[in-house]
Amino acid sequence: EVQLVESGGGLVKPGGSLRLSCAASGFTFSNDWMSWVRQAPGKGLEWVGQIKTKAEGGTTEYAAPVKGRFTISRDDSKNTLYLQMNSLQTEDTAVYYCRTTYYGESAFDIWGQGTVVTVSS
Amino acid sequence: DIVMTQSPDSLAVSLGEGATINCKSSQSILYSSNNKNSLVWYQQKPGQPPKLLIYWASTRESGVPDRFSGSGSGTDFTLTISSLQAEDVAVYYCQQYHSSPPTFGQGTKLEIK
Fold first, then answer.
1. What is the pLDDT of residue A86?
2. Which of A97, B67, B76, B101 fits as disulfide partner to B82, beta carbons 3.0 to 4.6 Å?
């Protein structure tokens, strides 16, 4: 079964750090671009960033609100995606989803169930 | 960044009636290699991740009921539900994948009248 499972969410104080993980199974993780999308309480979906495959240089891109504070990485040997979040702000409170998407002749569009991050004093 | 604007923000429709949600992109999202528009539609129910309904603006994902259809071209796109069922109550999002960063519409909340 194709699956993404996030973990690592929790309550953290402003200025603190947290690392999220996303374990992938059922597909060839190393071949796929991976991304993080977040959703603040009662709000819409916001792309956080993405990482390309190692074969494509493992290049990362980030949304402006998190650039310089968040870092996406991957460990293909563990089929795991990471999101290191530093200098957390109350505005970072959200459900964080990992996902992988590809649209060609058919679609491959997989989301995890999400992990909750709450930034509060 | 490409801005995606959905309308309306919320919509109430009677069971069995049709529903239409619009999505406008701030610039063309046409992928020249296949002449298709790089747009997806998602359905999100409370406490769940988004579920893919439509990709390439009009291709229905496998397993999605045929009452859901996508259309549009240029910068204007539409998700149509032909006959609303109770299980269609959800928030619907469009998202472009033409260029980075991928951007979402603000969402349209669909309810039963």
1. 98
2. B67
Q: B82 pLDDT band (50/70/90 cuts)?
A: very high
Q: How far is A96 from chain B (nearest CA, A)?
A: 10
Residue with tokens 């290699």: B33
Interface check for B72 against chain A (CB to CB < 8 A): the answer is no
Mapping DSSP to helix (H, G, I), strand (E, B) and coil, where does residue B102 land? coil
Q: Do B50 and A111 touch (CB under 8 A)?
A: yes
Q: Specify whether the CB–CB gap between A35 and A49 falls below 8 A.
A: yes
**Distance in angstroms (rounded) separating the CA atoms of residues B4 and B25:** 5
Find all residues with CB under 8 Å of B26, minimum gap 6, and list them. Answer: B2, B3, B4, B5, B75
Question: Any idea what DSSP says for residue A92?
Answer: G
